[in-house]
Amino acid sequence: MDVIVEASGLVKQYGSGSGAVRALDGLDLVAPAGKVLALLGPNGAGKTTLVRAIATLTRPSSGTLTVAGHDVLRAPEQVRRVIGLAGQYAAVEPALTGLENLRMVARLFGHRRREATLASERVLEQMGLADAGKRLVKTYSGGMRRRLDLGASLVGSPQLLLLDEPTTGLDPRSRSELWVAIEELVATGTDVLLTTQYLEEADRLADLIAIIDHGRLVASGTPDELKTQAGRDVVDVQLADGGDLDRAAAMLGPETVVDRNTQRLTVPVAGGADEMLARAGALSTAGITMTDVALRRPTLDDVFLALTGHPAERDAPEESDSGTGTGSSSGTDQRREMAGDAA
Amino acid sequence: MTTTTPNAVTPKAQPRPGAPSGSASAFTTLSAVAIRTGLKIARSPQILGIAIVQSVLFLLMFRYVLGGAIGVPGLSYVDFLVPGFVVSGLLFTAGGGSVAVAEESASGLYDRLRSLPVPSVAVLAGRAVTDAALMLVVALVTLGVGFAVGFRTGAAPGHWLLAIGLLVVYALALSGIFVWLGLVSGSAQAAQGLSILAVPFSFLSSAFVPVETMPGVLQAFAAWQPLTFMVNTWRGLLLGDPVTATFGHSLTFYLVGSLVWSAALILLAAPLVLHAYRKD
Asked: What is the pLDDT of residues A265-304, one digit of tens each?
């Protein structure tokens, strides 16, 4: 198995003494070549720090990290020849056209002038921006800017593409367009390592998922393996009266997850439909009124919860651009909104 | 059996289709970054416009509001002021560059550039060169306005040429410091705040008033700080010998001093800028 990224005992510490924070705390990770690996975790889990370390932007405090066999500390230049980075913000210049933005990056990747133009045009085509290439980026919508930014990380035809929360802050339509673009890239044989807070995104794009929490690897595997690993089916119980939540949760046991907003309780069960009926019966006997009871296969959400002890970020943030951007936006307004807060 | 090369770890290195054959040279990097910044400035007329308006307004205020109350022995105030204003104006334009650097830093541009196989020095030099060019344009427009409000000089073409050449050197020397301020400021707003430092720095120099009128400690600082050397060199070149007598030192003294200061500023700024750029 060819390995594209290998981290071993990776530590990144900020500050020292009692105020020290370990963004990465002994992370071990192997990303095989030829696959899409999603790093999944809540805010502050260390995902971005890991991507920055792979991109040679952050120097690990200890442990080893190699990219395509090159050590990030000893051979950062070699690593930079292998990677393309699209960060959390769309790092494109609004006062330049899409083509001009790409051409600069292509030149910096080492393309000659003519090659740079050809590569930029090819990437614009690939990102569905061929018609917009000659327009100033400040007329682009948020989704178009992200795709252009993704394109900028591609003009050097990198072996490994690093995408740090590629769709955070995008409206649903722009997200699915970006997903399609990423899937097409994967089809051309580019290795992808992406971070995300969205289980749906990881499920859709990734061959392999690594769940990270508190700077450590919590679990890894294919989406199916992870779901199976959580193993047991899940029962959702919907209560009629929010005042019964605590009593019901106590009856269902310590593994129960309470969602107060929706008055829903979720609990893993080993005994299938029989156990579901037994549990529901007990609640009913105790005088708790249920509006719905359902047995289902676990989702990645449940896996995440089972492994980290807290829920993953849920919904995509609200629509952040109308898709018809006018000249009013500047480069900084594309900054990501923090999607919810880490539990 | 001979020793194996320790570097040949993995069987990678197969160039991907469409991947560039070489890597960008320092010059390519510098010019790509400079062209990008230059295009941005050219397409955003407000950047140059605001810098020029600001510079011209302050020139007019000094000339017509404060100027009447400031006496300079042996010179009319407008002749004293304009060279001082043109040179110290470099600082104010550079402040705008610092804000732009802070914006670019926040936009993630530098993360992308740092992840590319290009020399950092060339990226930053590209930025500094464009900033210096902008500073020069604003300075020359201000000089033109200076003539319109009464500045006169009988300087020989050789002196003019040298004066403009030195202005380029000063602009480059000062831009490094402001790029650094932009990188460490953390936000465009903070960079804007930091660039206000240009005000005390230019007032505590020979740019607007003769340093001889300042009290002890301030005078010592003002007399030896880089801007005074640059300003006095310009005055000496454009206004001739009688002026240099007023300042107590020869033109050569200020010229050499201004070059030494320029070199010192670049040597000081380069490691600071590189460190701030590479900081994780």
From this structure: 888 888 788 888 988 999 999 989 899 998 887 777 777 7
Which backbone phi and psi does A233 adopt, to 5 degrees? -70, 170
User: Does the ipTM surpass 0.90?
Assistant: no
How close, in Å, is residue A60 to chain B by CA atoms? 10
**Residue that has been written with the tokens 């290439």 in this structure:** A133
CA dihedral A209, A211, A216, A218 (to 10 degrees): -110
- Residue B93 is encoded by which pair of tokens? 């334009």
Spatial strand order of the sheet with A160-164 comes to: A83-86, A160-164, A191-196, A36-40, A208-213, A216-221
Q: What is the pLDDT at residue A315?
A: 41
pTM for the predicted model, two decimal places: 0.80
> How far apart, in whole angstroms, are the C-alpha atoms of residue A150 and residue A335?
15
Interface of A with B in 315-334 (CB under 8 A): 331-332, 334
**How far is residue A168's CA from residue A175's CA, in Å, rounded to a whole number?**
8
CB pairs under 8 A between A and B: 123
Query: Position of tokens 């009447």?
Result: B68
* Cα–Cα distance for residue pair A262/A318, rounded to 1 Å: 19
Q: Does A258 touch chain B (CB under 8 A)?
A: no
